[in-house]
Write a structure and sequence with these properties.
By secondary structure, this protein is α+β, with helices and mostly antiparallel strands. Helix content is 40%, strand content 23%. It comes from Flavivirga spongiicola.
Length: 229
Amino acid sequence: MNRLTRITSILIQLQSKKVVTAKEIADRFEISLRTVYRDIKTLEEAGVPIGSENGIGYFIVDGYSLPPVMITEEEANALIVSEKLISNQGDASLIKDFNSILIKIKSVLRSFEKENIAKLENRIIPSYKKDVFESNWLSQIQKSITNGKVLTISYHSIYKNEETLREIEPLGVYYTDKAWIVIAYCRLRKDIREFRLDRILKINSTSQTFDYQKDFSLSKYFSRFTEPC
């Protein structure tokens, strides 16, 4: 990758997050921190309003934006693979949201790239697995995680074969080989529990909020099950 392409890619990366650390940039492009500092200075000299906080990272000052981003053919191909994987994971809300953004991305491709994408779409399939558990709640649960909104759910328990009404504070989601799972604090049980999305019969967002729990992470959560006794 030449320097001009790298600097442009760094600018796009800076716009992709609220704050980006120098190490994130260095790791992505396999360059030294000194090179990162030099590239950031080049962007600043070109008039890009980049702010920084010691020990935190770089950020683009609010109000600045790039023109619509053009993507490469390889990046478009990666999106097609992602589309196939997502379509095989059973949650209708995720499929709908991803297809919507994919249409927008395809709209900026050149004619020959659209033709190549059309060829590829019929040549990729992630697996022939058909027994996934279907759901339609992932999009709403993701919003609850980011907005800190309590959800009420009607849940059909797998083990007790009964329906219960729960108030939950979603903390994270993960996908097994067949179903999406939400990890949440259950106000009924007063503990962190896991709920299969296909077992949720109804879901509603409330006006109640909950603490985001910044210290929660899936890696820490799952490490509890791998630590030696």
